[in-house]
Write a structure and sequence with these properties.
binds nicotinamide-adenine-dinucleotide, 7-stranded parallel sheet, 10 helices
Length: about 260
């Protein structure tokens, strides 16, 4: 990533922050764009060459300014990493199934996650064509499997997956790749707040490792997709969930039943 310029939206958050640190270690110059501007500024202060940008993904002008300001500051753009999402305990508590869905919450989720991502891609593409750069979108395991929670969030992430493929199809010929990373449950401070231990332990029981993923695990996957090592990969979703979604559900009780035999 030496000399590459990367924008990370939600860069002040758990996964975005870990990715900003990793990419900086690998020689990139990062723009940390977040609605939590103070946190973005604090992190940028710790990372050589980093720039903090105040971003509100609900506002078109704010998104377009993020792209323009990054290019003005660094002189180029190599990677747009769309990592921010509308999250938080209150959001998660109220986003359940469609029958009980509050329309304002649905619209806001789509505004931040889908419309915000689209506007960012649209504004970044002319610059990415110049550098033969790429886009990495953070989606979720919930975009790929059904659940009783987060119908708005999960379907918005599924929309981003299809947007990923559409951009890859349209812009590959111009040298621009577009991929997605799909984290499973990942141990960020925000996640710990939103999901109490029994729910985290239930998911842990379904992983094929002995622990849930850490933000650094997702950062590694995103950094790979953003790098030239992934030059032959586009339009793909890289699932980074410790194998949770790779098997028939209910592996924890099966492990207990066959303890010692297949374990
Ligand atoms: N942690 C997990 O278990 C998990 C699982 C699957 C997917 N993800 C995805 O990973 C990404 C990062 O999430 P995280 O776990 O680090 O959570 P996080 O809450 O720590 O990070 C999200 C960041 O997005 C920012 N943000 C929210 N609304 C914004 C807006 N309108 N404009 C600009 N920035 C905004 C927040 O301020 C925050 O810094 C998200 O896309 C999330 O959906 C996380």
């Amino acid at each position: 990533m030496d000399g590459k310029v990367v924008i990370i939206t939600g860069g002040a958050g758990g996964i975005g922050g870990a990715t900003a640190r990793l990419l900086t270690q690998r020689g990139a110059k990062v723009a940390i764009a977040d609605i939590a501007f103070e946190a973005a500024r604090t992190l940028a202060g710790e990372l050589p060459g980093a720039l903090a940008i105040e971003l509100d993904l609900e506002r078109q002008d704010s998104i377009e300014a993020m792209i323009a300001d990054t290019v003005t500051h660094f002189g180029r753009l190599d990677v747009l990493h769309n990592n921010a999402a509308l999250l938080g305990p209150d959001i998660a508590r109220n986003d359940n199934d469609v029958e009980s869905m509050d329309l304002a919450l649905w619209d806001r989720t789509y505004a931040v996650n889908v419309r915000g991502t689209m506007i960012g891609c649209r504004a970044a593409l002319p610059h990415l064509r110049e550098t033969r750069g790429n886009i990495v979108n953070t989606v979720s395991n919930l975009a790929l499997q059904g659940h009783i929670i987060q119908a708005a969030y999960s379907s918005s992430k599924a929309a981003i997956i299809q947007m990923t493929r559409a951009i890859a199809a349209s812009h590959g010929i111009h040298g621009v790749r577009c991929n997605a990373v799909a984290p499973g449950m990942t141990m960020t401070p925000a996640l710990r707040e939103a999901f109490p231990p029994p729910l985290r332990e239930a998911v842990e029981g379904e992983t094929l490792r002995d622990q849930l993923g850490e933000p650094e695990d997702i950062a590694e996957a995103a950094a790979f997709l953003a790098s030239d090592a992934a030059r032959n990969i586009t339009g793909q979703v890289l699932v980074c969930d410790g194998g949770c979604a790779s098997h028939v559900p209910g592996i924890a009780p099966f492990r207990a039943f066959f303890a010692g035999e297949h374990a």
